[in-house]
């Protein structure tokens, strides 16, 4: 057995380790940002994104940045957050890694966005048809061995996905995408010392969303 596999005992441990979070409560300003992101997705869907004078916007941003949200999303070339949420340079502080899961460097980046740039909303953005989630399901299912450092990526993602394997409910791939988002939202909410403290004092909200490759729609999960 390689370290890219998981035993039934480990799955049971993961199950008991999962604690359901109370619903995240957004204040008015955070809700306004969520509404703005979803409105941007609606423009993207309608094929009528806002027009930009990128030259003027670039000049305006030379003095600094105040992104309205931080996004943890997948590296997948089909899911660029700025485009599918129709946001401009300076709007989003984006961390991308295949499988949109929390890494050390990604966490440090998000902490920078929250602590220094005062971003008050983090969105973990998964997507349907995610290759990293699919690869993790494949390893869990048949204990296949992936080449190079891809095995490391899958090893990190397994805890968030493994318990979905225990259910006979349909749409395993889609359930796994959502489970991966929820798992990483929880990881960020409990991340010490910065993010957990900001969540506790109401300065930060961390939510999950999924982008549907087929419809183009972003849905909060
Ligand atoms: Zn993906």
UniProtKB/TrEMBL annotation:
SUPFAM superfamilies: beta-carbonic anhydrase, cab
Principal EC category: lyase
Domain of life where this protein originates: Bacteria
PROSITE patterns in alphabetical order: PROK_CO2_ANHYDRASE_1
Record has Lyase as a keyword: yes
The enzyme's E.C. designation: 4.2.1.1
Pfam family, one: Pro_CA
The entry's keywords: Lyase, Metal-binding, Zinc
Essential cofactor(s): Zn(2+)
Transmembrane domains' residue ranges: none
Reaction equations catalysed: hydrogencarbonate + H(+) = CO2 + H2O
InterPro entries given in the database record: Carbonic_anhydrase (IPR001765), Carbonic_anhydrase_CS (IPR015892), Carbonic_anhydrase_sf (IPR036874)
Matching PANTHER family: CARBONIC ANHYDRASE
Protein family per UniProt: Belongs to the beta-class carbonic anhydrase family.
The protein, known as: carbonic anhydrase
Organism of provenance: Brevundimonas terrae
Species classification: Bacteria, Pseudomonadati, Pseudomonadota, Alphaproteobacteria, Caulobacterales
């Amino acid at each position: 057995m390689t370290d890219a596999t998981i035993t039934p005992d480990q799955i049971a441990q993961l199950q008991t380790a999962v604690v359901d979070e109370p619903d995240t409560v957004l204040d008015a300003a955070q809700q306004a940002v969520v509404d703005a992101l979803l409105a941007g997705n609606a423009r993207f869907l309608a094929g009528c994104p806002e027009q930009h004078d990128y030259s003027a916007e670039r000049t305006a941003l030379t003095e600094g940045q105040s992104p309205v949200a931080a996004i943890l999303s997948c590296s997948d070339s089909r899911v660029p957050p700025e485009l599918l949420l129709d946001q401009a340079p300076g709007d989003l502080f984006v961390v991308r890694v295949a499988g949109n899961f929390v890494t050390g460097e990604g966490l440090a980046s998000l902490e920078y966005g929250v602590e220094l740039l005062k971003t008050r909303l983090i969105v973990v953005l998964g997507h349907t048809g995610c290759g990293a989630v699919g690869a993790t399901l494949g390893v869990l299912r048949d204990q296949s061995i992936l080449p190079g450092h891809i095995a490391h990526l899958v090893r990190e993602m397994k805890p968030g996905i493994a318990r979905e394997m225990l259910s006979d409910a349909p749409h395993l791939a889609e359930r796994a995408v959502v489970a991966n988002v929820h798992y990483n939202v929880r990881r960020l909410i409990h991340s010490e010392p910065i993010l957990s403290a900001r969540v506790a004092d109401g300065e930060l909200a961390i939510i999950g969303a999924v982008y549907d490759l087929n419809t183009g729609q972003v849905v909060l999960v």
